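FW: tagging you since you asked about this chain on Friday. Here's the raw sequence from the shared folder, copied in full. Didn't touch anything.
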Amino acid sequence: MGTTETFRAGSAWPRLRVDDWTETRETLHMWVQIVGKVRLAHAPLLNHWWQVAFYVTPRGLTTSAVPYGSGAVARAPAGVFDIEFDFVDHMLRLRTSDGGARSIALESMPVADFDARVLRSLDELGVPTTIQDHPNEVESTVPFSTDHQHHTYDPLAAQLFWRQLLQAERVLSAFRASFVGKVSPVHFFWGAMDLACTRFSGRRAPVHPGGAPNCGDWVMVEGYSHELSSCGFWPGGGDEGAFYSYAYPEPAGFADSPVTPPEAFYSRQNGQFLLPYEAVRTADDPDRTLSGFLQSTYAAAADGAGWDRAALETDPERWADR
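HL: got it, structure written out here
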């Protein structure tokens, strides 16, 4: 694959064609699912599965601090651990609050080998973990422990994807700041491999019908228990990935709402508005272009469903002169 020509040094919004890193993306997707399931095994349930997500860091993606042990039954005193994908040095770093640490080189290897190394490292750190041994939200049902099909890791492609997430996270965080109602962090969900931020009206939603591949309907019921407007970025839906925005439940007329920029469109196949990443990357002002998409699609959802916007929104610059 030819990613070496896709990165222009110094570009804040890097170019990475979806078709150029298919094998690495599919392998990395399985790797992040494994680490995500480790977090799921230890972290207490939060509303909408927020406890399973990752966060963008200056070097990659992290689980953040995850609790482990109970003191009475654990092999080590109760504490916390974290796992970080470092896409600068291309290492997976596992750390515990008692000073323990392990590292695994991010390099081409079968998913089965990555799975074994992660679980062995956790065991050596006194954090023995059992995870569900198959992926979710994808068509594949091959267990991680026997997956030798996915084995490619192109470090440049992985780093470019992380740099896409860096820029998306920065603009999504600014968008999040103008909402004082219930709103999620800007976080990375390993099921669909997307970065997301979700605003809520405060009202309950109809029971979600489910339907995600290899994922129990009850998972979606929890995720979509309340009325929402969600936006984010994922490496699909366009030549270089796409930003998305959708509402649940979708209000009447939402799909026909006027949104910006002109390159944005409603995908009836996906049930959401899409904005190709390349339209943002090549814009004269990428931040303003993406912000316009986030705000206009949110307004379409909130106005269409009759949200109390005056109570839910605020000025993120309200303390700027203090």
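FW: The CA atoms of residues 135 and 141 lie 7 Å apart.
HL: agreed, and Confidence is low (pLDDT under 50) at residues 1-10.
FW: great, closing this out.
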